[in-house]
Structure formats: structure tokens, C-alpha cells
Amino acid sequence: MSQPIKSTSPPGDTRTERLAKWASSLQYKDIPEDVVQKTKDFFLDWLGCTIAGRHHPAVSAIAQFARQMGPSNGKSELVDGSLKFTTSPAFASLVNGASSHVVEQDDLHNRSIMHPATVIYPAALAVAQEVGATGEEFITACVVGYEVGCRVGEYLGKSHYERFHSTATGGVIGVAAAAAHLLKLNAAATLSAIGTAGTQAAGLWQFLLDATHSKQVHTGKACFDGIFAAYSARDGLLGPRDILEGPRAMGIALVPGETFPEAIDQNLGSDWAILSSSFKWHASCRHTHPSVDALLSLMEKNNVAFDDIESVVARTYQAALNVLGLSGAGETVHQSKFSMGFVLAVAAKKGQAMITDFTEEDLVDASLREFQKRVTMELDEEIESRFPKQWQGIVIVTCKSGEKFTESAEFAKGDPELPLTKEEIEKKTKALATYGGFTDVAHVNQLIERAWNLERETNLKGFIF
Amino acid sequence: MSQPIKSTSPPGDTRTERLAKWASSLQYKDIPEDVVQKTKDFFLDWLGCTIAGRHHPAVSAIAQFARQMGPSNGKSELVDGSLKFTTSPAFASLVNGASSHVVEQDDLHNRSIMHPATVIYPAALAVAQEVGATGEEFITACVVGYEVGCRVGEYLGKSHYERFHSTATGGVIGVAAAAAHLLKLNAAATLSAIGTAGTQAAGLWQFLLDATHSKQVHTGKACFDGIFAAYSARDGLLGPRDILEGPRAMGIALVPGETFPEAIDQNLGSDWAILSSSFKWHASCRHTHPSVDALLSLMEKNNVAFDDIESVVARTYQAALNVLGLSGAGETVHQSKFSMGFVLAVAAKKGQAMITDFTEEDLVDASLREFQKRVTMELDEEIESRFPKQWQGIVIVTCKSGEKFTESAEFAKGDPELPLTKEEIEKKTKALATYGGFTDVAHVNQLIERAWNLERETNLKGFIF
């Protein structure tokens, strides 16, 4: 393999080159207002997720690595202020990126099956802090990162996702593009950054089988590796020019099935990836969300209380039955979020299913466990026929009085069709901070206020809990 | 993919676990003398390669990244003393690992199609310097690194190598095992290190198509990522327990064809990977080596001089014809090493084909270009039938006097069957240092002397040119 082979693609003519050109030339003034707003929404949402995950043992180990291998007084900050050191962008993003995916409350881009926030924001924030970028420059870089990362994830497709953690493999390229933008790299250097990122793309699902810690490795390292790609490209390291579609590239090596090349560059600048990313509102498994939404709506509309309910039938799609069937009765807090019965019980009793609503105490709450037993799931062929384009849920509630109510949720709350309000994002952020053991409400309010005015920031320092 | 799935392998029963147990328990006293000697041989060979590659633009960019992202006064050293900073183990190995694969004179382990030295030595040296390991501890860790890395490469096999740069994907796991040994991790933590390394495994061949710089990224990052895996395992980060053979592991995701599971753990402690690794003696393409050896032997035996030769026929195997046919007449120094005619001309004229024997001046040497034209290659069916188990070459020389001589080389010089002598390794090291622009011969002699007595080192500081 030491012999160079001639390229078959004419220069300047690949989809990846068009994507790199677009990414390097995007300016803040070109970004529509709703895209800017969504970027701020997801930034705040990400910030809360990052503080919420800080006590995970993988995050502690990765923070220790950063402390031992990196500088102790860099320009980039850790969101967890209790760590009490600053470092270089690569290490700050390694730690923040690992932390922000722990509680699995970060956003989801459906079409690419990626969680873009957990890689794009930590990397862009760390680089922005180092180069002294403004809020506008930071927002622009994040929009670039979402766009490039999600488009790569969509190109790699479902068969890639079966084997690889797309948040990492698409994410590392989004990170490289976002960092390249903050470093003001031209199109050629951005293409190098994308190429060097892609040749580092990694992340296997094997850790799911024994509940080990690779998920944090994947998001943290996607940040580190993407930043490496951008900085080294700035300093003259050439990356492969066609890392997505080339004959020895990602599409061949990492995709056992079909790729979707048009996703790479179609509708650039008009179809914005960040607008089709979803918030996770409830803290439970995503497959329970439509049923939770339908149940809460039903209870409000019909003035039904927790104690009024005799039984619940949740009509759903097959994938929900498959996944939610695996966790038994929900013996641990984590498993309980994968039990439709327990999740609906929590939602019905508390009126919400936030991260602070699933605790050890709740696991032994007899009223929740009783309710849980009276919930059944049923396959609904009509709902199934529309999944995964639409994630619908129907609940049928029979009351102790004999009354019967039915309600449908066409989308999950947090989907692009049903986005969270500012107040809801704030509420979620506060719950995440509380979960992370941070109780200074005034400080949280200050950070929220800064996030809502992100475009006016003159530098990005101090997003620290 | 947020739902944990139960493991199917009973604990303590996988090949990977057996490999981790063996790796964590190996002691210096268990290592046969010839294995120790070979470890010292390849260490010196690696040291020369590292200084030779230091001026490559990718190495400069990576060194700049290390300078910007890492500390400036760590305990780990850069082999290129002109860089004038020390750093942490992860960054020192990133730079040294990138540098040592540039001139492609580092060793080759045939069965795994890997270059183990370029990843194992930089990582083990950097960690050894940080933990203050002795020469014996360093040698033991390197033996572990070779063993684990090469066995993983052999497990992944030829179909993996078609898509991935095995030196990186197997290498990162060898690095993790070597670093884990120096950190004195137990079997469980070593298994975590191996798992975390494997889920980061990456490195695509796409860069070959446009001669970009990913080769240096792959070797340097294999060092960095493997060190990350070992240190984070020490600090409690759990890696997947069956990253090689598990249902969502490397064997499924990164191997389109057959895997070779028995390679993982058969004959541990009796069949040593480092004993089956080969030196690269000549600086030309490996496929020219048997013919160079045969020609030099023929000229010596029969007292034939460069000017005596009218024509040369090199009889070889098909793969050599395929690869050596791609570079035309050899317009660049790099291409000239892939021209059988030019390489044999250089060898015949200079009596050797060291790295310093291929220069811009040689490209325009009329006597070399004349000779080159009088060399032809022919397919030899018998040689072909034994390739790649045996890399044989036959040359038939017709002299201007009319005399005709034939000589066969059964193996390439540097193969396990024909290892380099101490003097030859020293000569190669000096040529590599010269090529790297380092001219202090006394200093090179000192480093050589230290390498020959590596087991007596009390610390590994100062292997700096």
C-alpha cells in the first residue's frame, strides 16, 4: 500500500468539495433568523446536558486524562466549574463532549440518526474561546457543524448506523468543519480538515452489550479528533480530498449497505439541518414520548387525574414494542425509563417526565408500580405504516368511573413540528442543572440569559456552572 | 441505540480476555533472549526512521498541534531535538509516531501486514519516560505491544487490510496493551484499555489516491488513542470486553471478509510476533528487494562491476509486476524507488540501495538512466506459485563480454530468515540520521551504544537527536 494511485475524480468536482466550499464561505448574515434562534435553543439545551452528565465515571476518567496530558491553564473552559482548570480546545471539548451525552437528553437529528449538539457545541465553544470569536462567529460555526455533520450522517445512512455510532463518525467531520470555520480556513484547507477527520472516523456499538463507557469516548473523541483535523489542516497537513465518496473512502469502508450521496450537497443554504433536529423533552426512552404526550394531553383535556385512571392502552409501532420489551419491569432508574408502564405512571402522577422525575425513591413508589401494571402496549398497523417518518402515539384511557377517552399525538413534543417554547427549554435546563448537583439558581438564570443573547456576545468565556 | 443488550459471551471466556490476561502478566524474565535482542534491534531501527522523517510537512503540522494543545514541559521527549520542547506521553508519541513512518524504512510484520515499530516504540517510549520505567520494563512493554498489535492485525486479516491501514487499526490496540503494561494495569483494566482502543480504530487508504498526508495521521493517532485508552482505563473508564469478536465489534464492522480468530491467542508465549517481523534493508519498494539482493550477490560472487553489465532480466512474481509497472520511468525520487530498472541500477553502481542513495542528482545521472533501460522484468511461474509465503527473486545478468550469470535470492535481506547484522543495523541507522540532516556522528554512536544495552537503562530519557 506504499504506492500512490492516481485520483479518478476531476479536481473541484466532488460533492465533498462543494460542501467544503459552502462551509468555508458561510457568513452570519446569510443565516435565516429561525436558524439562529434554533442554534441558541440547542446551545442552551446542550449546556444543561453537559452539567447534568458531569459525575459519570467515564467523564471523571476523561477529565483526569485531560489534566494529565494537557496544559493546566489554556484558554478553553470546562463547563463543570468544579474541575477547576482550564485547558486547550482539544481537551476542553474532549471533556465537555463526553459529559454532554451522558444523560441522553441532547437533541436528535432524525434523518441522520445523529445527536449533533453533543459534538458540535463542545468543539465550537472550545475553539471559539481560544480564538476569541464573537457570538455571531460562534453561531455561524455551529450552523456549519450541524450542516456538515448531519449531511455526512445522512449520506452514510441506516446501514452504517447499524454498525457505527453515527454521532461520532459523522460528528467528527462536523466538528472539523465548525473548527475550520472558526480558524477562518479557506475551502481547500477546510476540505483537508474534512478529509483528515473522516480518516479518523470510528465508534462501534459493542459497548452496548456490556454497558461499558464507549459512548462518552465516542462523543469526546469526535470533538478532539475533529479539532486535530482542523488545526493540522491550518498548519499544512493535507487530508484526502474525497473522503466520503472516493474508492477507498468512508462510503466503501464504513457502509455495508446503501449510501445517499445527494444528501451531501443538495439544497445547501436552503434546507438547514438544525431546523430538522428535535429536542428530547421527556427523560425517558424516545419511543415512549408520543404516548406520554398523548396521555398528558388526554388528562388535561378531560380533566382526568392520576387516581382516576383504571387502565391505559398505548397503541404504537413495532420498534417501540421491540425496544421497550427488553427492560423487564424496570429494576434500575435507567431501565425504568425504558418501561412504557412506568414512564406513563410517572407522567400521569407528576404531570411531566423530566430527568428529576426518575429517582430511586420512585422505583419503590407503590402507586407508580400499581399503575405500571395497568398499562399495556398494542401494535397499531396504521401508526406502524408511517414510522419512522412519523412517530405517532395513541392512548386509550379507561377510568375507574367507567368513562373511556382516546387521544393521539401525531408528533413527539420537541420534534421540529412541535418545538419547545423558551420557557420549556429553560425549565429543562434548570432540571438538568439540578440533576447535575448545581443549585445556584441565580447563576443558572444568568447563563440562560446569556444564551438567549448569544449573538451579542463579544467572547464566549464563562459558560461554566 | 440507547438500550443495553445483554452480553452473549460468558465472562472470562473470550479470546480477547485471554490475550489481555497474558499481556498484563508478562514479565521480563519470561522473555527469551532472542526476543529481547530483536526488540533492541527494532528499537534502534525505529529510532533512525524517526529522525529521518522529521522534515515532512505532516510531521511539522502535528508537532505544531502538540505544541499548541499540550503542555510545554512534560516528561516525554521528542526524538527530533530541534523541536526544543517536551510534552506529555500522548503528544510525544503523536509526533514521534507520525515521524517514524515517513521514509517507510520501518519494519514489516508479514502475516498481519502491519508495521508495528512505528506505533509500538513511540508510545511505549513516551509512557516509559513519564512513569520512569527501566529498560527491562520498556522492553517487556514493547514485546507486549508487538504481540497484541500483530495478533489483532492477523485476526482482522487481508480483507480488512484492503480497506483499512492495519498498522493503525491493529496498532492502536497494541499501543493500548503496551501502555497498560507500563502503567501496571491488571487484566481487567488491560481488557478495558484494549476495548477502548478498538472502538477508536480507524485509518482509511483514501489518502493514497491523492498522495495526501493521512499515513502520518494514522500512525501518530494510533499512539495517541492507544495511550488515551490505557490511561482512561487506569482511571476507571470501562471499555467493551469483547471488542474483537463481539456481535457489534471490529470483526463484524471492519472486516468485509474472513477473520482469523485463532491468531488472537494461540501459542501465546511461544510464538513471538517480533521474531517474525522483517527489517527493510533497501530504501526501495519491497518488491524490488529480492532482485536487489540477488544482483548484489551475483556481482560479488562473480566479480562483476557496474560497467561490465550489458543487461539484466529480473524474474519475479505477478504482484511485483503489477506494482512496479505503475511509476513509469521514475520521474521523482519517490517514484524512482518503484522502478525495478532504476533501483537495480543504483544498487549495481553504489553496491547498496540505502535511503541516501536515491537523490535528485541520481535522477539525472546518465549512467543510471542508461542502465535502467537495459533491465527487464519477467514473470516466473515457480516464484509466483510460492508468493506471498516466500518472496523470491532471480536475476540473469548478461555482461558486455558475453558472459552470462544467474543468481537467486530465496528471501529478502532483513526477513526473519536473513536478519540484519548489528553492523548493518548501525549502518542503516547512520544513513537514516544523515538523511534526516543530523550529522553528529559521535552522538549517533552514543545512541546506538545505549540501544544495544537497552535492558541496562535505568530510565529511558535522552533518546534525542
- The number of helices of chain A is 21
**Low-pLDDT residue spans of chain A:** 1-10
Strand portion of chain A: 5-15%
Q: What would you say the CATH architecture of the largest domain in chain A is?
A: Orthogonal Bundle
CATH class of the largest domain in chain A: Mainly Alpha
**Largest pleated sheet of chain A:** 4 strands, mixed
Distance between the termini of chain A: 50 Å
Using a beta-carbon cutoff below 8 angstroms, give the protein chain pair with the largest interface and the number of residues from each chain. A-B, 82 and 82 residues
Can you tell me the CATH superfamily of the largest domain in chain A?
Answer: 2-methylcitrate dehydratase PrpD
Helix percentage of chain A = 40-55%
Multimerization state: homodimer
| Tally of DSSP β-strands of chain A | 6
Alpha carbon gyration radius of chain A: 22 Å
Give the domain tally of chain A: 2
Mean pLDDT of chain A: 94
CATH topology category name of the largest domain in chain A: 2-methylcitrate dehydratase PrpD
